[in-house]
Amino acid sequence: MSLLRAEGVAKRFGATAALDGLDLEIAPGEFFALLGGSGSGKTTLLRLIAGFETPDAGRLLLEGRDLVPLPPHARPVAMMFQSYALFPHLSVFDNVAYGLRRAGVPREERRRRVAEALALVRLEGLERRRPHQLSGGQRQRVALARSLVVRPRLLLLDEPLAALDAGLREATGFELRALQRATGAGFVMVTHDQAEAMALADRIGVLERGRLVQVGPPAAVYERPATRFVAAFLGGANLLAGLVRADGGVDCAEAGCLLRPAAPVGRPAGAPVTLALRPERVRLRSGEAPADAVNAARGTVAEVAFRGELSTALVRLDGGATLRVSRPSAEGAPARGARVTLTWPAEALAVLAD
Ligand SMILES: Nc1ncnc2c1ncn2[C@@H]1O[C@H](COP(=O)(O)OP(=O)(O)OP(=O)(O)O)[C@@H](O)[C@H]1O
After folding, report:
1. Which residues form the ABC transporter domain (predicted)?
2. Which residue among 55, 109, 168, 197 has its CA within the 20 to 30 Å range from the CA of 8?
3. Spatial distance between the Cα atoms of 151 and 304, rounded to a whole number of angstroms
4. Is the CB of 191 under 6 A from ligand 1?
């Protein structure tokens, strides 16, 4: 059975459809990341699952049980807010114990479970401190302990790493992953950071204007984006437009060559189609390709940007399109103005649905 099941969930605020008939299934123990731009409905979905909002239509089931009639505290769900929402006047211990006290858990058990939760997030010894006496990373861990101490079946995390320094984010991300495995709870994390979502989650879902436009394992969504929005949102794919030929190839004037994807295009001859091509799948070599090349375009290097491990080159193709090419900096950067040939494997071309 799925842990969480959302069926046709809709929520409007006045004229705004924050969620527009959303279907989603989360498996037990899954780490799921919801990605989307500002205002796409990410927080609204979390608030509906937690019970802070009521859906206008649709169903929300947790382990088969209807969540909607239950008040927030009766749901086996916890939510960690982006701001952490710690009580400033309470100690770390009392912040973490809060949910247990409200649920009427006896004092001894409360002590034991708070100690367990603080050990889980490695905060032993800081029980008596107040939130203002902690670092940002420690405050984040108090918020995590407070969410986990009630042993939720599902933990909702709204931008859990957003308030941390860049340096802390990676380490804290690994910790989140380990906590998720240790507790066995399902995690649903909201983020607008695509790299973070892909690094942490078993599956990601991309929200666009209140609809989930694609759901799948990070590598699958990244390699095979379904729409222009997903392609652009996840790491800036190159988009190439062309016309389908009778033999299944795609004439692409802006690339100045024939595109031949490995998978069937699935459109009739003469139909327009757009293909996505990831910058790191493009190979760059100096010199000219033959004029009738397939999956090989000629162009001139317009810009080169060093980005540490990788360098990105912008190559203006003779057909007019500009392609982003990224490759390990260790391979050496091409010179600006150099004539180059770009090639890519057929399976790197993903046909977009729109
Ligand atoms: N209480 C509310 N009253 C009116 N409009 C709201 C309310 N909550 C959300 N909205 C609107 O619903 C839409 C979705 O908002 P939501 O907060 O879910 O987006 P989000 O994806 O979490 O965005 P962000 O990344 O900026 O937090 C937005 O257009 C927002 O302005």
Report:
1. 4-234
2. 197
3. 50
4. no
Over residues 181-230, the pLDDT tens digits come to 988 999 999 998 888 899 899 999 999 999 999 999 999 998 888 888 89
Q: How far is the CA of 13 from the centre of ligand 1 (A)?
A: 8
- Per-residue pLDDT tens for 7-46? 999 999 999 999 999 999 999 999 999 999 889 999 999 9
Coil, strand or helix at 101: helix
Radius of gyration for the alpha carbons in the chain, expressed in angstroms and rounded:
25
40 alpha carbon – ligand 1 mean position (Å): 7
Residues 6+ apart with CB under 8 A from 314: 301, 302, 303, 304, 322, 323, 324, 325
Residue of the nearest CA to atom 17 in ligand 1? 43
Task: Determine the Cα–Cα distance for residues 170 and 164; give it in Å rounded to an integer.
Answer: 10
Ligand 1 touching residue 47 (CB < 6 A): no
Q: Give the strand pairing for 349-351 and 272-277.
A: antiparallel
Residue ranges of the chain with pLDDT lower than 70? Answer: 289-292
**Confidence at residue 85, expressed as pLDDT on a 0 to 100 scale:** 87
Query: Global pTM?
Result: 0.85
Both tokens of 157, joined, read 């995390």
Q: Is 38 in the pocket of ligand 1 (CB under 6 A)?
A: yes
**What's the longest Cα–Cα distance across the chain?**
79
Residue 133 near ligand 1, beta carbon < 6 Å: no
Q: Whose CA is nearest to atom 6 of ligand 1?
A: 13
Taking the centre of ligand 1 as the mean of its atom positions, its distance from the CA of residue 18, in whole angstroms, is 6
Ligand 1 near 172 CB (within 6 A): no
Nearest-CA residue for atom 28 of ligand 1: 39
ipTM: 0.94
Supply the angle between the helices 136-148 and 107-120 in degrees, to the nearest 10.
Answer: 130
C-alpha dihedral sign at 206, 211, 213, 214: positive
Question: How far does residue 67's CA lie from ligand 1's centre (Å)?
Answer: 21
| CB-based contact 30:200 (threshold 8 Å) | no
pLDDT given at position 291? 65
